[in-house]
Predict the 3D structure of the following.
Amino acid sequence: MGNKMHTLFPWVAQATHSPLTFVSGFGSWLTAEDGSVYLDFSSQLMVTNLGHQHPHVMAGITAQLQQLSFVQPAHLTPVREKLGERLSRIASGVGDGAAAIGKVFLTTGGAEAIENAIKMARMVTGRQKILTRYRTYHGATTGALTLSGDSRRHAIAGSEMPGVIRVEDPYCYRCPWGQKMPSCDRLCISHIERIIELEGPESIAAIVMEGASGSSGCLTYPPEYWPALRRLADAHGIVLISDEVMSGFCRTGSWFAVHQTGVQPDMIVMAKGLTCGTVPMGAVWVSDAVARHFDARPLQAGLTYSAHPLGCAAALACLETYESEEINARVQHLGPLLQQQLKDGLAENNCVGDIRGTGFLQCIELVKPGTQLPLFSRQMTAAERAQQQRLSAAFLAEGLLVFMRLHYVFVAPPLTVSEGELTDGVGRLVRALASLNCAITAEFPG
Ligand SMILES: Cc1ncc(COP(=O)(O)O)c(C=O)c1O
């Protein structure tokens, strides 16, 4: 009660928000204050990639806490050194034997990492414009939120960061050009070429895209998309930035989703699965070419808690666990199974328009029966709001935690989930969505 009275909660009207109170967790499960247990099918906010309270991660943090809990970011300490090398190795995509490439700037979360990536791209190129898409999310600070084209940005309309330009999305389920994959003309790519030309390529500092699309609907890029961005960036001296805050650290079956496209960006932004939420931390990896810019010039950036030793210890323990438990191989194997189970289980549900995603980052797009209209409009009528609340209640009644935004339901279990838990979770989800199916059919006939 005290917590609810004196805590502000993100993204919701406070008066009607009824938070659950959790007191413990382990693996894929969380236990609430009243003793009920919930299957965490969204890894909270796609953060707890290794589940809750992973023993190796807990041990790493505890050991560092007892050794040295803080030194300011301009000093070095062994965990900081090790993490810089490990992250540079995986971000630059070099094999195990080869020398790591590039450097990392460690932050306290995803938004700060994005802010610093933009800042560095502008310093390196001397240009100001940043190109991004509409249906994206890059964080809630002003610069990161401006880059986020989706409706969360509307809260800062009129006070956005200057210099951001946006392109239409490769939203194949609702193709802006009315075409169909895979036989389409990839107009989403020629559109970007045109916008770059119209904006003046020599004025664009960076292109920022999510490695794999996340909370704006898990839109799936055509295979040519990232390679085309790389080609355009190279042709015009633009810094190419992959935001892997949500898609990184094995969530889509590789260290970073962009690497599945064969593209090496100039910067990779990361957070979430970096420490699996145990200690707040984000990072920007930069290529050698970007790093060299700051050899003789000051890097005008800093955060008191940057490269926090506890965060570094947590990150190192997570990286060790991703490797020792062969998490990428698990996701490559179980991800397609998860998507197939969702497709099979929801095949008869007339409110499911599309199911898409990569690995353990899946999205179910809900529509009004027999149409492609979003099930919940952005203006949200009273009937739609009631329907959404009933759906949230149905998930909770099933003991299932999922992440919902607009008319999207995201399925992103911990990457350590067992096959049994995966099937169990899909069953709960299908049942919760079935209750919606009946109700909606009655409320929106035809
Ligand atoms: C792709 C992406 N970038 C950046 C962020 C912002 O990260 P944070 O909430 O740690 O600031 C998020 C958060 O969900 C994200 O999904």
Notes: The domain at 2-54+326-443 is CATH 3.90.1150.10 (Aspartate Aminotransferase, domain 1). The chain has a mean pLDDT of 95.
